[in-house]
Design brief:
The protein is an alpha/beta fold. The chain is 47% helix and 20% strand. Bound molecules: ligand C2E and magnesium ion (2 copies).
Length: 265
Amino acid sequence: DLQKSFTGRLAVENEMRHALDNNEFEIYYQPQVSLQDQRIRGMEALIRWNHPTRGIVPPNEFIPIAEESGLITPISEWVLGAACRQAKLWRASDLPPVTMAVNLSARQIEHPHFIEKFTHCLHESGIQGQGLEIEITESTLMRDMDGSIEKLRRLADMGVEIAIDDFGTGYSSLSYLKKLPIHSLKIDRSFIHDLTGHMNNGATLVAGIAAMAKGLNLNVVAEGVETRAQLDYIKTLGCDAYQGFLFSRPVGVEKATELLARQPH
Ligand code: C2E
Ligand code: MG
Ligand code: MG
Protein backbone atom coordinates (compact mmCIF):
# COMPACT_ATOMS: atom_id res chain seq x y z
CA ASP A 1 0.00 0.00 0.00
CA LEU A 2 0.85 3.66 -0.21
CA GLN A 3 2.44 3.93 3.21
CA LYS A 4 4.90 1.14 2.46
CA SER A 5 5.56 1.75 -1.21
CA PHE A 6 6.56 5.37 -0.79
CA THR A 7 10.15 6.08 0.19
CA GLY A 8 9.07 7.65 3.42
CA ARG A 9 6.32 9.40 5.24
CA LEU A 10 7.82 12.73 4.35
CA ALA A 11 7.40 11.94 0.68
CA VAL A 12 3.73 11.10 1.21
CA GLU A 13 3.25 14.31 3.13
CA ASN A 14 4.91 16.32 0.40
CA GLU A 15 2.78 14.70 -2.25
CA MET A 16 -0.34 15.43 -0.21
CA ARG A 17 0.64 19.06 0.13
CA HIS A 18 0.92 19.31 -3.65
CA ALA A 19 -2.28 17.37 -4.07
CA LEU A 20 -4.24 20.17 -2.44
CA ASP A 21 -2.62 22.84 -4.63
CA ASN A 22 -2.97 20.71 -7.78
CA ASN A 23 -6.64 19.91 -7.22
CA GLU A 24 -5.95 16.19 -7.05
CA PHE A 25 -8.62 15.61 -4.43
CA GLU A 26 -12.14 14.85 -5.48
CA ILE A 27 -15.33 14.01 -3.65
CA TYR A 28 -17.34 10.94 -4.46
CA TYR A 29 -20.90 10.66 -3.23
CA GLN A 30 -22.73 7.60 -1.95
CA PRO A 31 -26.52 7.67 -1.61
CA GLN A 32 -28.23 6.83 1.65
CA VAL A 33 -31.60 5.27 0.91
CA SER A 34 -34.71 5.35 3.08
CA LEU A 35 -36.19 1.89 3.67
CA GLN A 36 -39.64 3.36 4.02
CA ASP A 37 -39.99 4.72 0.49
CA GLN A 38 -36.76 3.64 -1.28
CA ARG A 39 -35.85 7.27 -1.92
CA ILE A 40 -32.42 8.80 -1.54
CA ARG A 41 -32.48 10.70 1.74
CA GLY A 42 -28.86 11.77 1.77
CA MET A 43 -25.48 11.73 0.06
CA GLU A 44 -22.26 10.95 1.93
CA ALA A 45 -19.19 12.86 0.76
CA LEU A 46 -16.18 10.52 0.53
CA ILE A 47 -12.79 11.88 -0.43
CA ARG A 48 -10.65 10.39 -3.22
CA TRP A 49 -7.11 11.25 -4.24
CA ASN A 50 -6.56 11.23 -7.98
CA HIS A 51 -2.84 10.64 -7.84
CA PRO A 52 -1.05 11.55 -11.10
CA THR A 53 0.79 8.21 -11.30
CA ARG A 54 -0.94 5.93 -8.80
CA GLY A 55 -4.51 6.47 -9.92
CA ILE A 56 -7.28 6.73 -7.39
CA VAL A 57 -6.03 6.36 -3.82
CA PRO A 58 -8.70 5.41 -1.25
CA PRO A 59 -8.97 7.48 1.96
CA ASN A 60 -7.88 4.69 4.30
CA GLU A 61 -4.44 4.91 2.68
CA PHE A 62 -3.85 8.60 3.23
CA ILE A 63 -6.24 9.93 5.91
CA PRO A 64 -4.20 8.32 8.73
CA ILE A 65 -0.99 9.94 7.42
CA ALA A 66 -2.82 13.23 7.02
CA GLU A 67 -4.03 12.93 10.63
CA GLU A 68 -0.52 12.37 11.96
CA SER A 69 1.07 15.14 9.97
CA GLY A 70 -1.63 17.73 10.65
CA LEU A 71 -2.42 17.98 6.94
CA ILE A 72 -5.85 16.68 7.82
CA THR A 73 -6.83 20.22 8.78
CA PRO A 74 -6.51 21.85 5.34
CA ILE A 75 -7.76 18.67 3.62
CA SER A 76 -10.86 18.44 5.82
CA GLU A 77 -11.57 22.11 5.30
CA TRP A 78 -11.41 21.55 1.58
CA VAL A 79 -13.83 18.59 1.85
CA LEU A 80 -16.31 20.50 3.97
CA GLY A 81 -16.18 23.51 1.67
CA ALA A 82 -16.57 21.44 -1.49
CA ALA A 83 -19.43 19.39 -0.01
CA CYS A 84 -21.25 22.54 1.14
CA ARG A 85 -20.89 24.15 -2.28
CA GLN A 86 -22.26 20.99 -3.92
CA ALA A 87 -25.14 20.87 -1.44
CA LYS A 88 -25.93 24.45 -2.40
CA LEU A 89 -25.90 23.57 -6.12
CA TRP A 90 -28.16 20.56 -5.63
CA ARG A 91 -30.56 22.60 -3.55
CA ALA A 92 -30.68 25.34 -6.15
CA SER A 93 -31.54 22.84 -8.89
CA ASP A 94 -34.82 21.11 -9.46
CA LEU A 95 -33.80 17.97 -7.58
CA PRO A 96 -35.43 16.41 -4.53
CA PRO A 97 -33.76 17.70 -1.34
CA VAL A 98 -31.16 15.48 0.29
CA THR A 99 -28.97 15.71 3.35
CA MET A 100 -25.25 16.17 2.73
CA ALA A 101 -23.16 14.03 5.07
CA VAL A 102 -19.50 14.83 5.76
CA ASN A 103 -17.02 12.74 7.76
CA LEU A 104 -15.10 14.60 10.45
CA SER A 105 -11.76 13.48 11.83
CA ALA A 106 -10.66 13.65 15.45
CA ARG A 107 -7.96 16.23 14.76
CA GLN A 108 -10.48 18.44 13.03
CA ILE A 109 -12.85 18.53 16.01
CA GLU A 110 -9.99 18.98 18.47
CA HIS A 111 -8.75 22.07 16.65
CA PRO A 112 -9.24 25.06 18.98
CA HIS A 113 -10.98 27.03 16.22
CA PHE A 114 -13.09 24.15 14.92
CA ILE A 115 -16.45 25.87 15.48
CA GLU A 116 -15.28 29.16 13.94
CA LYS A 117 -13.82 27.34 10.93
CA PHE A 118 -16.99 25.31 10.50
CA THR A 119 -19.24 28.34 10.72
CA HIS A 120 -16.99 30.25 8.33
CA CYS A 121 -17.24 27.40 5.85
CA LEU A 122 -21.04 27.46 5.94
CA HIS A 123 -21.10 31.23 5.42
CA GLU A 124 -18.65 31.03 2.52
CA SER A 125 -20.68 28.43 0.69
CA GLY A 126 -23.92 30.18 1.47
CA ILE A 127 -25.73 27.34 3.20
CA GLN A 128 -27.16 26.90 6.67
CA GLY A 129 -26.67 24.04 9.08
CA GLN A 130 -30.02 22.53 8.09
CA GLY A 131 -29.58 19.74 5.57
CA LEU A 132 -26.01 19.12 6.66
CA GLU A 133 -25.01 16.03 8.61
CA ILE A 134 -21.65 15.22 10.14
CA GLU A 135 -20.36 11.69 10.75
CA ILE A 136 -18.12 10.95 13.70
CA THR A 137 -16.82 7.62 14.92
CA GLU A 138 -17.14 6.51 18.52
CA SER A 139 -13.38 6.45 18.96
CA THR A 140 -13.16 10.07 17.84
CA LEU A 141 -15.76 11.03 20.44
CA MET A 142 -13.97 9.12 23.18
CA ARG A 143 -10.71 10.99 22.70
CA ASP A 144 -12.16 14.03 24.42
CA MET A 145 -15.72 13.38 25.49
CA ASP A 146 -16.35 16.66 27.32
CA GLY A 147 -14.80 18.78 24.59
CA SER A 148 -16.73 16.90 21.90
CA ILE A 149 -20.06 17.27 23.70
CA GLU A 150 -19.63 21.02 23.92
CA LYS A 151 -18.65 21.40 20.27
CA LEU A 152 -21.28 19.05 18.89
CA ARG A 153 -23.97 20.88 20.82
CA ARG A 154 -22.89 24.08 19.10
CA LEU A 155 -23.23 22.38 15.72
CA ALA A 156 -26.63 20.92 16.62
CA ASP A 157 -27.76 24.42 17.62
CA MET A 158 -27.01 25.46 14.03
CA GLY A 159 -29.31 22.71 12.74
CA VAL A 160 -26.53 20.29 11.79
CA GLU A 161 -27.44 16.63 12.28
CA ILE A 162 -24.97 14.29 13.93
CA ALA A 163 -24.43 10.65 13.02
CA ILE A 164 -22.24 8.12 14.82
CA ASP A 165 -20.23 6.30 12.14
CA ASP A 166 -19.07 2.66 12.32
CA PHE A 167 -21.36 2.21 15.33
CA GLY A 168 -20.67 -0.90 17.36
CA THR A 169 -16.92 -1.07 16.73
CA GLY A 170 -15.80 1.53 19.26
CA TYR A 171 -16.22 -0.55 22.41
CA SER A 172 -17.16 2.39 24.52
CA SER A 173 -19.60 3.41 27.18
CA LEU A 174 -23.05 4.05 25.75
CA SER A 175 -23.71 6.88 28.17
CA TYR A 176 -22.64 9.40 25.55
CA LEU A 177 -25.79 8.59 23.58
CA LYS A 178 -27.92 10.52 26.05
CA LYS A 179 -25.43 13.34 26.52
CA LEU A 180 -25.09 14.18 22.84
CA PRO A 181 -27.54 15.64 20.34
CA ILE A 182 -27.28 12.59 18.07
CA HIS A 183 -29.59 12.04 15.13
CA SER A 184 -28.47 8.69 13.65
CA LEU A 185 -26.45 5.59 14.32
CA LYS A 186 -24.70 4.05 11.33
CA ILE A 187 -24.25 0.36 12.05
CA ASP A 188 -20.81 -0.75 10.94
CA ARG A 189 -20.74 -2.85 7.82
CA SER A 190 -19.08 -5.80 9.59
CA PHE A 191 -22.42 -6.45 11.36
CA ILE A 192 -24.32 -6.28 8.07
CA HIS A 193 -21.82 -8.64 6.48
CA ASP A 194 -22.39 -11.14 9.30
CA LEU A 195 -26.15 -11.18 8.72
CA THR A 196 -25.96 -13.72 5.98
CA GLY A 197 -23.13 -15.79 7.40
CA HIS A 198 -23.90 -19.14 8.98
CA MET A 199 -23.71 -17.70 12.50
CA ASN A 200 -26.73 -15.57 13.19
CA ASN A 201 -25.32 -13.35 15.93
CA GLY A 202 -25.19 -10.48 13.46
CA ALA A 203 -28.98 -10.35 13.27
CA THR A 204 -29.33 -10.31 17.04
CA LEU A 205 -26.90 -7.41 17.32
CA VAL A 206 -28.50 -5.38 14.54
CA ALA A 207 -31.98 -5.93 15.98
CA GLY A 208 -30.69 -4.96 19.44
CA ILE A 209 -29.07 -1.77 18.18
CA ALA A 210 -32.24 -0.89 16.24
CA ALA A 211 -34.44 -1.45 19.30
CA MET A 212 -32.19 0.68 21.47
CA ALA A 213 -32.08 3.41 18.83
CA LYS A 214 -35.86 3.43 18.57
CA GLY A 215 -36.13 3.89 22.32
CA LEU A 216 -33.71 6.81 22.14
CA ASN A 217 -35.49 8.26 19.11
CA LEU A 218 -32.50 7.83 16.79
CA ASN A 219 -32.36 6.86 13.15
CA VAL A 220 -30.63 3.61 12.30
CA VAL A 221 -28.64 3.36 9.09
CA ALA A 222 -27.14 0.07 7.89
CA GLU A 223 -23.76 0.47 6.19
CA GLY A 224 -22.32 -1.80 3.53
CA VAL A 225 -25.46 -3.48 2.18
CA GLU A 226 -24.20 -5.51 -0.76
CA THR A 227 -26.86 -8.11 -1.40
CA ARG A 228 -30.60 -8.35 -1.81
CA ALA A 229 -30.67 -10.85 1.06
CA GLN A 230 -29.00 -8.35 3.39
CA LEU A 231 -31.47 -5.68 2.33
CA ASP A 232 -34.46 -7.92 3.00
CA TYR A 233 -32.99 -8.84 6.35
CA ILE A 234 -32.32 -5.32 7.61
CA LYS A 235 -35.89 -4.38 6.71
CA THR A 236 -37.16 -6.93 9.21
CA LEU A 237 -34.68 -5.81 11.87
CA GLY A 238 -35.96 -2.26 12.29
CA CYS A 239 -33.41 -0.18 10.32
CA ASP A 240 -34.56 3.13 8.82
CA ALA A 241 -32.12 3.55 5.95
CA TYR A 242 -29.16 1.90 4.26
CA GLN A 243 -26.07 2.56 2.22
CA GLY A 244 -24.13 0.09 0.16
CA PHE A 245 -22.91 -1.20 -3.16
CA LEU A 246 -26.32 -2.85 -3.77
CA PHE A 247 -27.89 0.55 -4.39
CA SER A 248 -24.77 2.38 -5.53
CA ARG A 249 -21.06 2.60 -4.98
CA PRO A 250 -19.69 6.04 -4.19
CA VAL A 251 -19.76 7.90 -7.52
CA GLY A 252 -18.52 11.18 -9.00
CA VAL A 253 -20.68 14.27 -8.91
CA GLU A 254 -22.19 13.80 -12.38
CA LYS A 255 -23.32 10.27 -11.68
CA ALA A 256 -24.60 11.30 -8.25
CA THR A 257 -26.65 14.07 -9.82
CA GLU A 258 -28.09 11.54 -12.29
CA LEU A 259 -29.09 9.26 -9.43
CA LEU A 260 -30.91 12.15 -7.77
CA ALA A 261 -32.62 13.19 -10.98
CA ARG A 262 -33.74 9.64 -11.75
CA GLN A 263 -35.92 9.59 -8.64
CA PRO A 264 -39.59 10.38 -8.95
CA HIS A 265 -40.24 13.88 -7.64
P1 C2E B 1 -17.03 5.54 6.27
O1 C2E B 1 -17.37 6.95 6.58
O2 C2E B 1 -17.58 4.49 7.17
O3 C2E B 1 -17.49 5.33 4.77
C1 C2E B 1 -18.01 4.14 4.28
C2 C2E B 1 -16.97 3.36 3.51
O4 C2E B 1 -17.53 2.09 3.16
C3 C2E B 1 -16.56 4.02 2.21
O5 C2E B 1 -15.20 3.70 1.97
C4 C2E B 1 -17.46 3.30 1.21
O6 C2E B 1 -16.93 3.30 -0.10
C5 C2E B 1 -17.47 1.92 1.76
N1 C2E B 1 -18.68 1.19 1.37
C6 C2E B 1 -19.90 1.69 1.12
N2 C2E B 1 -20.77 0.72 0.78
C7 C2E B 1 -20.09 -0.44 0.83
C8 C2E B 1 -20.43 -1.82 0.58
O7 C2E B 1 -21.57 -2.17 0.24
N3 C2E B 1 -19.45 -2.73 0.73
C9 C2E B 1 -18.20 -2.39 1.09
N4 C2E B 1 -17.28 -3.37 1.20
N5 C2E B 1 -17.82 -1.11 1.33
C10 C2E B 1 -18.76 -0.14 1.21
P2 C2E B 1 -14.15 4.79 1.56
O8 C2E B 1 -14.77 5.80 0.66
O9 C2E B 1 -12.93 4.07 1.11
O10 C2E B 1 -13.87 5.54 2.92
C11 C2E B 1 -13.29 4.89 4.00
C12 C2E B 1 -13.28 5.74 5.22
O11 C2E B 1 -12.45 6.89 5.06
C13 C2E B 1 -14.64 6.31 5.54
O12 C2E B 1 -15.42 5.36 6.22
C14 C2E B 1 -14.28 7.50 6.41
O13 C2E B 1 -14.05 7.10 7.73
C15 C2E B 1 -12.96 7.93 5.82
N6 C2E B 1 -13.18 9.12 4.98
C16 C2E B 1 -13.66 9.21 3.72
N7 C2E B 1 -13.73 10.49 3.31
C17 C2E B 1 -13.33 11.24 4.36
C18 C2E B 1 -13.18 12.66 4.58
O14 C2E B 1 -13.49 13.50 3.73
N8 C2E B 1 -12.72 13.05 5.81
C19 C2E B 1 -12.40 12.15 6.80
N9 C2E B 1 -11.95 12.62 7.96
N10 C2E B 1 -12.52 10.84 6.62
C20 C2E B 1 -12.98 10.37 5.42
MG1 MG C 1 -18.97 7.88 7.05
MG1 MG D 1 -18.70 3.79 8.43
